[in-house]
Every structure is written in C-alpha cells, then in structure tokens.
Design brief:
This protein is mostly helical. It has a single domain (about 5-130), classed as NusB-like (N-utilizing Substance Protein B Homolog, Chain A, Orthogonal Bundle). The protein is about 75% helix and about 0% strand. The protein contains seven helices and no strands. It has helices at about 5-20, 30-35, 40-55, 55-65, 75-90, 100-110, 115-130. α1 (about 5-20) crosses α3 (about 40-55) and α4 packs across α5.
Length: about 130
C-alpha cells in the first residue's frame, strides 16, 4: 500500500473518531498520532486532517450542495468522512489531480463502506470536480 493511500486511511480513521464523539475542537492530530504506526504517513495524513478540520464548514456546504436528497447528518459516518477528505483535496489541494482524489475516495469506500457507498460518493465527487473545472 502506498504512503498516500495509507495516510488517507489514517485520516479517515481519525475523522471517523472525531465525528463519532463530536469533538471537533482541540488538536485533531492527537487522534491520529495515538495509534500511528506508520511514521512516514504522518505528514500527509496530518495535512488532510488539519485541512478538513479547518475547512469543514466550506467542505460540508459544498458536499451538501451536490448531495441531492441527502443531508450531511443523514449520511453514514464513513461516507461523509470519505467525502470530506476527497472534497478537501478537490477544493484545496491543486497539486493532486482531481481523478486521483476521486479514485482514492472510491478505494476507501470499497474497503470501509457499503455496496452503495461507491456510486453514492462517485456521484457527489464527480459533481464537485465538474464544478471545480
């Protein structure tokens, strides 16, 4: 597994925990580094985690505007946090190709989501990417 893929996976685990206990204040990296066994992933996973936490309102608004008939709270914890990671990359990381961010999100959905996760996420992320241009 590549370093960036593992970093996304670790960021997802940390975001899942933060979202589950509704603790968005404080140091989000504490969740990540408590269980981190892959030091080479810490920088990128930390960038993702800090970015999602810092821009969560804008990210959630963007996701919400492209999620027909769904609200953020109604989405599963896994799906919404995979969406947050991918949306952060699409909106705030111009150095990462749009297709890479979407494909990585779909890989995470395959590992951690349900059967419906991949098409659900793909539809929303595709709309965000098209808007981004």
């Amino acid at each position: 597994m590549g370093i960036r893929r593992k970093a996304r996976e670790l960021a997802l685990q940390a975001l899942y925990t933060i979202d589950l206990i509704d603790s968005w204040e404080g140091n989000p990296l504490a969740f990540l580094y408590e269980k981190e066994r892959w030091p080479s992933c810490q920088a990128f996973s930390g960038d993702i985690l800090n970015g999602v936490v810092a821009h969560r309102q804008a990210i959630d608004e963007t996701i919400q505007s492209h999620a027909d008939y769904w609200t953020i709270p109604r989405m599963s914890l896994i799906d919404r946090n995979i969406l947050r990671i991918a949306a952060f990359e699409l909106l705030f990381c111009p150095e990462i190709p749009l297709k890479v961010s979407i494909n990585e999100a779909l890989e995470l959905a395959q590992l951690y989501g349900t059967r419906q996760s991949k098409p659900f996420l793909n539809g929303i992320l595709d709309k965000i990417a098209k808007e981004k241009g």
